[in-house]
Specification:
The complex is a heterodimer of chains A (347) and B (256). Chain A is mainly alpha-helical. Helices cover 72% and strands 1% of the residues of chain A. A two-stranded antiparallel ribbon of chain A has the order 1-2. The two termini of chain A are 38 Å apart. In chain B, 38% of the residues lie in helices and 23% in strands. Chain B has 10 helices and 10 strands. Chain B has a 6-stranded mixed β-sheet with strand order 6-7-8-3-9-10, with helices on both faces. A 4-stranded antiparallel β-sheet of chain B has the order 2-1-4-5, covered by helices on one side. In chain B, helix 3 packs parallel to helix 6 (153-165). Chain B is globular. Classes of the chains: A mainly alpha (347), B alpha/beta (256).
């Protein structure tokens, strides 16, 4: 009874969220808030990418901003220099970033814990420095300007254009929803279980027949591809990119969004991305005090909600389900008490 | 022969943990592996399951040399194990734990997983039926939605055994399955082990509980300081001078 109710509540919540997301631009939102919403959705993709490698597989990566930049730059350069359409350029950018991440991940994912984190920190910084110093291609710190919007799609009965802010919002929203569909399928399969098994106990996972190298590289490369997808969409929306966007600060921001939202969950990753993006933008009125407030808030959330927003949401859902459930669910503690207990022996 | 260890040696720097051990295990037997603490039993387990690459020697499983192969390869070939200090996936439920145990027997591709294809659902249903039956056999089905870390110690050991069985092994390695269990739990564990044996699975068990070892094992191997000092039926081992010497500290010439 309990389980059914929670699932029903979750489905209801999902439907409401999607409906609100689609209705948002129609509700006469100011352009500024629509802009924040677009940035929030892009961050949603970035946080989902990090979630694969850090949240599910337990390998903390700080290279996500670098992959975000790779996706942006490759897409932009292919459009500007090779005259490709956005769609082809984005696809190539994503594939190239994924291949690059797989090649780098193969040696670095052998490193454990903090050593892997430091190597990804370096990787992200190296990618940014390439953007800054390879001036003949990337135009260095000046960045790339004049990037065209995605080419219109002719559906026969109507033509979709992507010039306006609203259309960009819908494009990114649809891409995000499709991504979530595949993401959910992947997590809800033997692959997702393998990721979580590696996070919980890599030795036991290996002995259960999980190829550690293959699955870690898969999580790392898939996470990088999601970042590159975010990068391609960002490029087509902002139409101007410079190395300043893809700093270590951005990588840390993505990480904070994931931690505050709830690692290893989809809803948490999205809630963190949207919430923190909104907060960071609107707190600009506090100017220099922004980071102080931000820091305090992080402190409070990490101390009082270690599972993040997703953990908070889950416990609220469970309470609601208990209140609305006609049958009182059997308490877990009672089930346990009926079982024979044994003395903890030599471990 | 199902498993043949030929002159397996494992050195950690100057320490020889396993010293030229040769054991042959025929199909459908229960083999006990005993010896004082630090005699190399778990090291031998780690070599057979691929966690260590032996310094020298060969390990033939169904005639194929698996020494130095990766653990996931060896699991797919048909060897599963449990751990001395329980290594369940703590954030997962009992059900998810045994699903991970079956990981290498899923026949779907990454694309099936991404698109929720019919093949994925078929494979999943097949696995679910198999795992439900397996859990029911060990009286764990009612607990399948509990988090593994919330179970009492004895049940965690049982879940670990079921997780190992989920990969449909031909050879099951149990590393001190009765450690920390009371007499009644050990009794039921013995029943479960013979049940597994009846499923046609060969079992190699490391155990300090002599009652369990002497009762269920067909043959017993005794290690001391990394060397195989005795090999025979329980009755032979009980009267073996070298074994008694190793356990009680009598000075005897090691010979086997």
């Amino acid at each position: 009874m309990l389980v059914v109710n929670i699932n029903k509540l979750k489905t209801l919540g999902l439907v409401i969220c999607i409906a609100v997301a689609f209705a948002l631009p129609l509700m006469g939102l100011k352009a500024y808030y629509l802009h924040i919403a677009v940035l929030g959705l892009i961050h949603g993709l970035l946080v989902l990418g990090l979630n694969l490698i850090a949240g599910y597989t337990g390998q903390l990566s700080l290279a996500q901003a670098g992959f975000f930049g790779l996706g942006s730059y490759i897409t932009a350069l292919l459009m500007l220099n090779a005259g490709m359409s956005f769609w082809l350029a984005a696809l190539l950018g994503i594939l190239a970033t994924g291949t690059f991440a797989a090649c780098v991940g193969l040696p670095t994912l052998r490193l454990k814990g903090p050593y892997f984190v430091i190597s990804t920190l370096g990787l992200g910084e190296i990618i940014r420095l390439v953007f800054v110093h390879w001036e003949s291609v990337t135009r260095g710190p000046n960045g790339l300007a004049g990037i065209p919007a995605p080419d219109p799609i002719d559906l026969g009965f109507m033509v979709l254009t992507f010039e306006s802010k609203t259309s960009a919002y819908y494009l990114i929203l649809v891409v995000l929803l499709v991504t979530i569909y595949f993401y959910h399928n992947l997590i809800d399969s033997r692959v997702g279980r393998a990721f979580r098994a590696i996070r919980d106990d890599s030795i036991a996972a290996e002995v259960m027949g999980i190829n550690l190298t293959a699955y870690k590289v898969l999580a790392f490369a898939a996470g990088a591809m999601l970042s590159a997808l975010a990068g391609a969409l960002y490029t087509s929306y902002i139409r101007f990119i410079s190395p300043d966007t893809f700093t270590i600060g951005e990588a840390v921001n993505i990480l904070i969004m994931l931690v505050l939202g709830g690692m290893g969950t989809i809803s948490g990753a999205l809630a963190g991305a949207l919430g923190i993006t909104y907060l960071l933008e609107t707190m600009r009125i506090f100017a220099d005090y922004r980071m102080v407030i931000y820091g305090l808030l992080m402190f409070v959330i990490i101390v009082y909600m270690p599972q993040g927003l997703a953990g908070l949401g889950n416990s609220l859902l469970e309470r609601m389900a208990i209140i609305f459930s006609p049958n009182t669910p059997k308490p877990v503690a009672k089930v346990k008490a009926e079982l024979p207990h044994s003395v903890e022996g030599e471990v | 022969m199902l498993l043949e260890c030929c002159n397996v040696t494992m050195k950690f720097g100057g320490l020889t943990a396993v010293d030229k051990v040769s054991i042959q295990i025929a199909e459908n037997q229960i083999i006990g592996l005993i010896g004082p603490n630090g005699s190399g039993k778990t090291t031998l387990f780690n070599i057979v399951t691929g966690l260590y690459k032996p310094t020298s020697g060969r390990i033939l499983f169904l005639g194929q040399d698996i020494a130095g192969r990766k653990p996931d390869y060896i699991t797919r070939a048909g060897i599963a194990r449990t751990f001395q200090n329980i290594r369940l996936f703590n954030s997962m439920t009992v059900w998810e734990n045994v699903q991970v145990g079956r990981h290498c027997r899923f026949g779907e591709s990454l694309f099936d997983d991404l698109f929720n294809s019919r093949r994925k659902i078929q494979e999943q249903n097949k696995a679910n039926a198999f795992l439900a039956e397996l859990l029911a056999m060990f009286n764990l089905y009612e607990l399948k939605d509990e988090l593994a870390r919330n179970l009492p110690y004895g049940l965690q050991r049982k879940v670990e055994i079921v997780r190992a069985l989920a990969s449909e092994p031909k050879l099951l390695l149990l590393d001190e399955p009765a450690a920390g269990m009371n007499a009644a739990e050990t009794e039921s564990l013995m029943q479960y082990i013979s049940q597994i044996h009846h499923m046609g699975i060969t079992i190699l068990v490391v155990e300090h509980d002599m009652k369990l070892v002497m009762n269920i094992c067909d043959r017993i191997a005794v290690l001391n300081h990394g060397k195989l000092i005795a090999w025979g039926s329980p009755a032979e081992i009980q009267t073996n001078d070298a074994v008694i010497g190793a356990y009680l500290g009598k000075q005897v010439m090691a010979g086997a």
